[in-house]
Design goal:
The protein is about 70% helix and about 5% strand. The protein is mainly alpha-helical.
Amino acid sequence: MTWVRALSWLLAFVFATGAGPLVIAAYKKMGWVEDPNQLTHEKTTHEKPVPRGGGLVVAAGILAVVILFVPLTTPMIGVLLGALVLLISGTLDDRYDINPYIRYVLNILAAVIVIASGVGISFVTNPFGGGVINLDTWQTTLVVFNYQLTVSWIADGFALLWIVWNMNAVNWAKGLDGQLPGFVSIAALFIALLSLRFEADMTQGIVTLLALAVSGAYAGLLIWNFYPQKMMPGYAGGSLAGYFLAILAILSGAKIATVLLLLALPMTDAVYTVIRRLAAGKSPFWGDRGHLHHRMLDAGMSKRTISVFYMATTTLFGLLALQLSSTSKLYALLAAGILSLALILWFKRSITSSKLADRVSG
């Protein structure tokens, strides 16, 4: 089984890496490039035309592993169908820049497909004591097209919020070369390592393979996205990252706190971004230049350094996740969130002070 795990990561990496030049060439031939000279949005950070298409690269790597090693159970089919929705909508967005609200509705559709296939959060570990907190006590049975469907309102509602939130929070952290595929690959790898503790459970073996496929696929995308980038993750690459990390957290036994700890930096930035936009009377779905990576870039840090910083913090939090109990993870998550928020506010203050100084000197 060990060789299958190693081959899963390697296979996903090779297929994703190999798909990169094909997607880049196809996008350039069709003119599907993001040209900074034709864009006026303040969040744009690249200096020359670059194709998107990272979602197709990642899909190639993950699909190769799933076809060869992962049993196509009903939940797995649901996961793949949900991913297909995101891949199609993301690829169309590469060309047409779909309205954010439409993308959000499609996010919900993808999550509903997964939940309807049987993937849900029926319990969470009680961080303040032994045992678990059951979430599937309030259920209703519905008949849809002669298909009997049991809806656990709290459990399925929580799963819906979790998956959709993850898709958007992770997607927002893809503004710079190498940023997103770097920390996503590391996060998925740590989920695989954590799932090895329960390798006697056959279902956890599947989780390990899927996590390794996600890790290898995003490592393959990193080859083409690291500075100076040859292609961007695109909306499909970003939303699929959050989608698969959210689902891996569910399939690995409701390891919500673990994934939150692994993604403490982008998660904190996402929460702060939503609050900041709402406080300013703006929609939380419309992008701006207020994310942490923007602030770090405006403060003078290089794209390469910021990308490595995101990877380093994910690695640090991953090492903590391997060692800590559920209660300790909660405290670590709170500490990581506070530190991340302090970092965001520090860079915000640093940039504001720099602008004031420039005005005075001018």
